[in-house]
Amino acid sequence: MTTHERTAELAAAIEAVSRAAQVTQAVQRELVTADTLTKKDRSPVTVADFASQAVVCETLQRHFANDPVVGEEDAAELRDEANEPLRASVVEHVQRALADIAPATEAQVLSWIDRGHAEGGAKGRFWTLDPIDGTKGFLRGEQYAIALALIEDGEIVFGALGCPNLPSPADEGEGLLIVASRGDGTWMTPLIFEGESELQPVHVSDIAAAADANFCESVESGHSDQDQSVQIAKKLGITAEPVRMDSQAKYATVAGGSAAIYLRLPTRPGYREKIWDHAAGVIAVEEAGGKVTDVAGKPLEFGHGRQLEANRGVIATNGRIHDAVVAAVRDVLES
Ligand SMILES: Nc1ncnc2c1ncn2[C@@H]1O[C@H](COP(=O)(O)OS(=O)(=O)O)[C@@H](OP(=O)(O)O)[C@H]1O
Ligand SMILES: [Mg+2]
């Protein structure tokens, strides 16, 4: 697929994610300091989260006025009188990112953020958005992603995953943008790039034995059980150390073949995964030739509202080793 053959949806998703990345990069440059982590100050990621959601929702509304969005954020907190400085900072960043479109008012910015309130479900078409996935990675200056996917009748049909801190293809531009279209494949291009750049195809690793795999998992041990992943790796004969990274950059890494496994092992019985934490990454891996299921080996179901109500945990692989990984996960979780 070349750039001029993109569908309208793919072009809109690319525009939305690229604009949002300009915002998150600007916030990172201007607001994240050495003190941010030591002072446990989350305000930079809060500004970037709201501004990113506003910019993506504005872009989607301009291209597809009637499409609902299931987004992680809403503007209730921002409307609070006490949050005037935060609100002003969000509005300023959105205005800069949309300067070539129209001057944005504060009311418009809040209304764009609130467009993310949709509930999703099994019928019809909606977008799902994580404006900054891997908020902790963002604050540490490590991996994070802007994740946008289109779901029709419960099936993911498009995904765009912007990873500002993954290496850019061919060292052009900045960051990595992965796009996937159902039945058409997965493609990559620099995320921030002046001018036209071609999409290049992305394929999963072709290893046939799980023992040869690199696997990736969350940095946060509260999001995926790292003791169990050690046991699973041992069972599969994997000797490589796990690659720990924040956000759906893990799906991008499996899609691109640098790792053959992404394990997300439930840590709390009551936790339900959120659809925006997975949809864009799942289609990227599947269309690159890989496979994604939950820890029981069942496909992820995106038609149950804002959460993956029917699934626990995630296993993403290059496909060839999927059954072996699911079997090892089952053994360890049952023991
Ligand atoms: N208990 C539990 N189990 C599983 N997942 C959880 C849990 N709690 C939170 N979250 C979600 O994890 C998202 C962060 O993704 P990762 O775990 O891949 O990255 S990281 O290691 O936290 O950096 C994170 O997304 P962001 O909030 O967008 O960063 C959360 O939606
Ligand atoms: Mg997230």
CATH architectural grouping of the largest domain? 2-Layer Sandwich
The ligands found in this model are: 3'-phosphate-adenosine-5'-phosphate sulfate, magnesium ion
Neighbour order of strands in the largest sheet: 1-2-3-4-5-6-7
CATH fold node name of the largest domain: Fructose-1,6-Bisphosphatase, Chain A, domain 1
Share of residues in strands: 15-25%
Q: Would you list the SSEs in sequence order as H and E?
A: HHHEHHHEHEEEEEEHEHEHEEH
State the name of the first-level CATH class of the largest domain. Alpha Beta
**How many beta-strand segments?**
12
Main sheet properties: 7 strands, mixed
Structural class: alpha+beta
Regions with pLDDT < 50 over 5+ consecutive residues?
A: 1-5
Q: Rg to the nearest angstrom?
A: 19 Å
Q: What is the straight-line distance between the termini?
A: 46 Å
Judging from the principal axes of the Cα atoms, what is the shape?
A: globular
The CATH homology group name of the largest domain: Fructose-1,6-Bisphosphatase, subunit A, domain 1
Give the % helix.
25-40%
Individual helix count: 11
Organism: Natronomicrosphaera hydrolytica
Catalytic activity: adenosine 3',5'-bisphosphate + H2O = AMP + phosphate; 3'-phosphoadenylyl sulfate + H2O = adenosine 5'-phosphosulfate + phosphate; adenosine 2',5'-bisphosphate + H2O = AMP + phosphate
Protein name: 3'(2'),5'-bisphosphate nucleotidase
Enzyme class: hydrolase
